[in-house]
Design goal:
The chain has 297 residues and is an alpha/beta fold. The chain has 7 helices and 9 strands, in the order E-H-E-H-E-E-H-E-H-H-E-E-E-E-H-H.
């Protein structure tokens, strides 16, 4: 476990780097960002990687936005590879066409998470069949030509009063079975467990509808533990350092990587208060007091 005040640098299981906050979709569950739209430049990415390299072996190129929109994605993964950092991507899958086959040649790319629940959360101008087929074409090539892990997500399950857009889930699962030529029933497997292995390096993961914490909502907890700033941190596209991938607006602004180095930011009073608070199971930050994911991450 990390300790932000120890003499050795903390190690994070993952660091989220937002390479763009621009998206090509408008999911109905997405809070959308009010931040300035931006794409990270190669120079900025190099700077960020230099800063995070002593802290982690795994980066995730996503907080808000669609990373496959970035024209320098290949260069980013190559830059990470030179620092021996493995890369994970989360995408809505709409841009996984032949042009993105370069991803299969990049051994530093460890895992791709594909949010299939984004389809029903949008007004689409293509059919479900075309969408799932194009995603599965990529998955098939990935399993044949690389060791890339593919996790397809349906994070749209109902949870209490929270209802997800999930009327197409059965059809989606059947399309996956058809496209990947899976003989056994995935639905049966999913009834036993919400996650299952579909085939070599391919996983299907179902979870409740995703909800971002919202500073404008009623506070509902103070006594809670969270792995934010212990296992993970996030870096927004403007360089703002946040304790987790859920702080999509930079509410818990710990500092900016273009103004200070990460060592200094992580030893700031605000960072230490948050960390020590969670050690005592206290959510110090207002956002954390309104976050349903505290125990999940
Ligand atoms: S949830 Fe993700 S894919 Fe959907 S609009 Fe927001 S950033 Fe885009
Ligand atoms: S409680 Fe929520 S907002 Fe706070 S650090 Fe954890 S995941 Fe992030």
């Amino acid at each position: 476990m990390n300790n932000l005040q120890s003499s050795t640098k903390p190690r994070f299981k993952k660091i989220y780097i937002e390479i763009t906050n621009v998206c090509n979709l408008q999911c109905d569950f997405c809070p959308k960002t009010k931040r300035m739209p931006k794409f990270l430049s190669i120079q900025e990415f190099e700077h960020v990687i230099d800063q995070v390299a002593p802290y982690t072996n795994y980066i995730y190129l996503h907080i808000m936005g669609e990373p496959l929109l970035h024209e320098n994605l290949k260069e980013f993964i190559e830059i990470a590879a030179k620092k021996k950092i493995k890369v994970n991507l989360t995408t809505n899958g709409t841009l996984l066409n032949e042009e993105k086959d370069f991803l299969l040649e990049l051994s530093a790319l460890r895992q791709i998470n594909i949010s299939l629940h984004s389809f029903e959360a949008n007004d689409q101008n293509r059919t479900l069949h075309d969408y799932v087929k194009s995603v599965m074409n990529f998955v098939k090539k990935a399993t044949k030509h690389s060791e890339l892990l593919c996790s397809v997500r349906l994070w749209n399950m109902n949870f209490g009063d929270i209802k997800g857009a999930n009327s197409l889930n059965r059809e989606i699962v059947e399309l996956i079975e058809h496209e990947l030529e899976i003989k056994e029933s995935l639905e049966e497997k999913l009834c036993q467990d919400h996650s299952c292995k579909v085939s070599h390096n391919v996983y299907l993961n179902m979870a409740r509808k995703f909800e971002w914490p919202d500073i404008k909502k009623e506070k509902f907890q103070e006594e809670v533990f969270c792995y934010g700033l212990r296992d993970q941190i996030g870096i927004l596209v403007d360089g703002t350092v946040v304790p987790c991938c859920l702080d999509s607006e930079g509410t818990i602004n710990l500092g900016n990587l273009y103004e200070d180095n990460l060592d200094k930011i992580l030893s700031s009073e605000r960072a230490n208060n948050l960390y020590e608070g969670f050690s005592r199971r206290i959510a110090v930050e207002e956002l954390c007091q309104r976050c349903g994911y505290a125990t999940r991450f």
